[in-house]
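@channel sequence for tomorrow's demo:
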Amino acid sequence: MKIRIKGNSVRIRLSRSETQQLAEIGQIEESTQFVNGSFCYVLTASDAHTHLDAHLGDNTITVLMPGTLTRNWFANDVVGYDHHVALPDGGQLYLLIEKDFKCIDNSMGEDQSDNYENPSQSC
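structure tokens (generated this afternoon):
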């Protein structure tokens, strides 16, 4: 699971095995260790939610995804899901959860064997 945060935007990308784990187990968790603690991010399937939602607490971002969206997502053609969450100050938090595709030019130098095939054939 990869996370990208920029301003009021959180984007999470999942590999094939991660989308399947989300469907079967209902949760994926990653953490990054620092000298003085760790930062965690969790994606959880929730039957109580009808849209994406997110919470922050104890150095952990928890993103909640409707269970109805997670169950067959690993096998269907839906690329991702997004939602704008209203914030108390009148702003918005943009959430995007999407499948991680293989890079066409393989310039990243990382193992992409578990990523989804890229539907684009050229850059």
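heads up for whoever presents: The two ends are 23 Å apart (CA to CA).
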